[in-house]
Amino acid sequence: MGLSKTIPLIILSIFMFGVLSNAQLSSDFYSTTCPNVTAIARGLIERASRNDVRLTAKVMRLHFHDCFVNGCDGSVLLDAAPADGVEGEKEAFQNAGSLDGFEVIDDIKTALENVCPGVVSCADILAIASEISVALAGGPSWDVLLGRRDGRTAIRADAVAALPLGPDSLEILTSKFSVHNLDTTDLVALSGAHTFGRVQCGVINNRLHNFSGNNGQSDPSIEPDFLQTLRRQCPQGGDLTARVNLDPTSPDSFDNDYFKNLQNNRGVIESDQILFSSTGAPTVALVNRFAESQNEFFRNFARSMIKMGNVRILTGSEGEIRRDCRRVN
């Protein structure tokens, strides 16, 4: 019995050692140079979230959209600046008009520059803010590994190619994750972030009204009553910028209801429901596991967030520490 209890700890230690040694990140990176970084970020996110119930989901999404495009380098925060060679990922199809939460990141950066100028990267702010946001919404906490530096470019075409799309097949989704060394468990666990937040009707419009290019047809995998609910919220010819809860049961809480919704064919986005509706796929068993145990989902989500946070990072003398997260120095 003693051995069985130590094995998970050994595995976790090996995993964490691999993360630290390969990526050169550590949870105490700012312990002497900016010891209050997390407390400052938490205070500002707590205050902002009182005025915007969607803020926590917005911030979480920023970190995901940053890491998936050429690594966790803060590039998603850059405004387009052709003179500096910055196209801007914000204008990519998957981001334009929907990515939000930039203001609270700006506020955190300003506050940190006032107390420890030139020390904390924007990429690390995103990682810290994401963990705080998930925890504030009722989700898991984890030790955020830090030490990333900021990139000096943002390429719109790379964002278009790398970020998942609503109609993506399971094969395409798996490929978009595997290129970052994220496996099937990471795919399902990280997709669980859709347990809070909203999606624009434009993302699901074809699924409701023009499935597979057939006008008036809907995705047959949608539970019929839920289909009618979605069609009322996103009518054909309606406002494509209107928003729908990704998790209709608990839209602002981080829990495992997302997976229960998939089991009931009530996934809002096609690329979510496909995780459960792909008969025989390994994702189905993972959806069932996470639906049955919120604790297991939380453990895997935290692990996958740490893993995602190590995607193609810049450390040491690479990149820079931006003074303003929206522009290169």
Q: What is the share of helical residues?
A: 40-55%
Average pLDDT: 92
Helix/strand order, N-terminal first? HHHHHHHHEHHEHHHH
Q: What are the low-pLDDT stretches, counting only 5+ consecutive residues below 50?
A: 1-22
Shape summary: globular
Please outline the major beta sheet.
2 strands, antiparallel
Secondary structure class reads mainly alpha
Describe the model.
- By secondary structure, this protein is mostly helical.
- The chain has helices at residues 2-23, 37-51, 55-67, 102-115, 122-136, 156-162, 170-178, 184-191, 201-209, 224-233, 257-263, 270-277, 282-292, 294-308, and strands at residues 198-200, 243-245.
- It has a two-stranded antiparallel ribbon with strand order 1-2.
- α2 (37-51) packs antiparallel against α4 and α13 (282-292) crosses α14.
- The longest helix is centred in the first third of the chain and has 22 residues, at 2-23.
- The protein is globular, with a radius of gyration of 20 Å.
- The protein starts with a helix and ends in a 21-residue tail after the last helix.
- 41% of the residues are buried.
Features:
disordered N terminus; 329 residues; 2 strands; two-stranded antiparallel ribbon; mainly alpha; 14 helices; globular; single chain
